[in-house]
Design brief:
By secondary structure, this protein is α+β, with helices and mostly antiparallel strands. It is built from 9 helices and 17 strands.
Length: 378
């Protein structure tokens, strides 16, 4: 263990802990763009520089190991001037169109430009990367917003292991590229969206997110992904009660900031136009219950043989109370006549873990049967 003092606060940390990590443990934020706690430190953006007592130069805190007795300052007039200069260099090659940018309110470059008072560049503005790639149904790649922090490259290599992208070119021609700059579908990308999760700017954005509002316009709801039994936490961003995109959160106990392809992009069924949003009763049963005046009989041909069948041809919409009363009565009659094992329950992988727990509890304790399965093969 070593003891280090940061901005007058002392802390004991394990040998090998960086100043950035120690500062985070103390609740001290050091500005950063290329640093991410789940990835290796690159030290590329130089925004996290700090002053170390006894050293003349400035050190990147993401790569600086704590030493016993070390005294560090994260804020000073000198540091502010240097960070302002770094941000000035970034915005000299970055569009200053925050007023119309979808990432406004969640962009780290915008955040630090505001904090350090950089409203425009003092250099000649020249956006060297203009490539816009909309080559897959999941996310957009808008290179003019890229700051070459390398987060996307490192997460693809270190966390996912896909190695689908890499930094290519030199100088103003540098950019994040797939092999031979080909379409993303032709690379080894598995479309997990982890690169989108860690991108600090609008260079990587969900397709479903584009043009749907600012970050402060969106509501957030956390839940548990229902696709498997791992129990990953997922946060949905909603506008007008419709899901725009899904992401993970740093405090998620199981998965941290990462999700698989299904967890991040497999939510479109919730807003699919063919999704049933009200209970439906077959027309012959609705006629028997007096819910419709039109008699109806099952057709000789199976409904499954009909191309693009219309649900209203065979079913009538009813209220929830009517549907639940009918199901309860039919289940009770069946159990009374044939016993509980004459009933079998099939749970849905589209439901949450909590909903499926309640369903199996109802089947086992309420109905009294263990005839239960789950369609978790999506």
């Amino acid at each position: 263990m070593v003891t280090v003092t940061i901005d007058g606060k002392s802390i004991q940390v394990e040998t090998g802990t960086t100043v950035m990590e120690a500062a985070r443990d103390l609740g001290i934020e050091i500005p950063h763009l290329c640093y991410h706690p789940e990835l290796s430190a690159s030290g590329g953006c130089r925004l996290c520089i700090v002053e170390v007592e006894g050293r003349a130069g400035l050190e990147p805190s993401c790569q600086l190991a704590c030493a016993d007795g070390q005294v560090v300052r994260t804020q000073s007039k000198r540091l502010s001037q240097m960070r302002r200069e770094v941000i000035d260099l970034f915005v000299s090659d970055h569009p200053l169109d925050c007023v119309i940018c979808d990432k406004a309110g969640a962009c780290l470059l915008q955040k630090y430009a505001y904090e350090y008072g950089v409203s425009e560049t003092s250099y000649d503005l020249e956006v060297s990367r203009s490539l816009f790639q909309d080559d897959n149904p999941f996310f957009l790649r808008d290179h003019k917003y890229c700051i070459l922090c390398g987060r996307c490259v490192r997460v693809c290599n270190e966390v996912i292991g896909a190695d689908a992208i890499e930094l290519a070119g030199r100088g103003f021609e540098s950019h994040v590229a797939t092999p031979f700059d080909g379409p993303m579908i032709d690379s080894s990308c598995i479309f997990c969206g982890s690169c989108v999760q860690v991108c600090p700017t609008a260079a990587l954005m969900p397709v479903s997110r584009r043009g749907k509002g600012r970050e402060w316009d969106l509501d957030r709801i956390k839940t548990i992904c229902g696709y498997c039994g791992v129990g990953c936490q997922v946060e949905y961003a909603l506008k007008d009660s419709r899901i725009l995109y899904a992401q993970a959160t740093p405090d998620a106990p199981v998965n941290g900031e990462f999700l698989c392809t299904k967890g991040r992009y497999g939510w479109d069924f919730a807003t699919h136009p063919e999704r049933l949003t009200t209970p439906m009763i077959r027309r012959d049963m609705a006629y028997e219950l007096g819910l419709t005046d039109e008699p109806w009989h099952l057709p000789d041909a199976s409904p499954l043989a009909v191309q693009q069948p219309k649900i209203e041809d065979s079913f009538v919409p009813v209220g929830w109370d009517t549907a639940l009363d009918l199901v309860a009565q039919k289940l009770a009659d069946t159990v009374k006549e044939n016993g509980p094992d004459s009933i079998m329950g099939l749970a849905s992988a589209r439901c949450t873990n909590e909903e499926n727990y309640v369903f199996q509890k109802f089947m086992r304790a309420g109905i009294g049967t263990n005839n239960l399965d789950h369609c978790a093969r999506l």
